[in-house]
């Protein structure tokens, strides 16, 4: 990021990071390196599920979230390839000790195509997922002849109330933007803010996809920005473009 862009980031206020731990901390660190001040206030908590793996000896493993990578240590074998939906999820799998990890760069459709290009039809796949998940890529892969077993390895539970520091920062106008990584976390933030009497309409909401943005419900459309691609790099680009626009208006006064 150029120096002027860093100055714009620094001038634009706090960026609210509401995704679950530990991913929220890593996102905040990355934003910090880009010059942003952040406030970490997760609205969902990742809780391991008691369900055992649906298949303990698959031909390959599917990961559609970085949170799912936290459960990989519960599998008996680590010599199977891992197909991850995006680069951050792939990195989490590598950190968990898996050697062969392939990334679809943030798209479930590409993930299905990647698997079908690398493995023969009929291969057994273990989709390590959360309790709340989308049907893809399992539906597409099943249609291509793959045997997909879903292991519900964790659930994301809403926190009881909006973090006190977040309430204070939002009320004081210190927050300029919030990042949204999932539809459920966006919906949860809207609900918790309403329960706390906190206004979210005055800040910018930068979303990983249009589906995520749909979770923001009745917020003004002009306050919602959707990332061009469903990955964190593109999300940060959308955040930077919005912050530079905001800062340029402020500097012109």
Question: Helices, strands, pairings?
Answer:
Elements: H1 3-11, E1 14-17, H2 23-33, E2 38-40, E3 44-48, E4 60-63, H3 66-69, E5 82-84, H4 87-95, E6 101-103, H5 108-118, E7 124-130, H6 138-143, E8 147-158, H7 164-172, E9 175-180, H8 183-196, E10 204-207, H9 210-213, E11 224-226, H10 232-252
Structure description:
The chain has 253 residues and is of the alpha/beta class. It folds into 2 domains: 3-43 and 159-252, Rossmann fold, CATH 3.40.50.10090; 49-156, Rossmann fold, CATH 3.40.50. Helices cover 39% and strands 21% of the residues. The chain contains 10 helices and 11 strands. It has helices spanning 3-11, 23-33, 66-69, 87-95, 108-118, 138-143, 164-172, 183-196, 210-213, 232-252, and strands spanning 14-17, 38-40, 44-48, 60-63, 82-84, 101-103, 124-130, 147-158, 175-180, 204-207, 224-226. Strands 3-8-7-4-5-6 form a 6-stranded mixed beta sheet, sandwiched between helices. A 5-stranded parallel beta sheet has the order 2-1-9-10-11, sandwiched between helices. α1 (3-11) packs across α10 (232-252). The protein is elongated and about 55 Å long. The model is unreliable at 5-10 and 244-253 (pLDDT under 50).
Summarize the structure.
The protein has 253 residues and is α/β, with parallel strands linked by helices. It is built from ten helices and eleven strands.
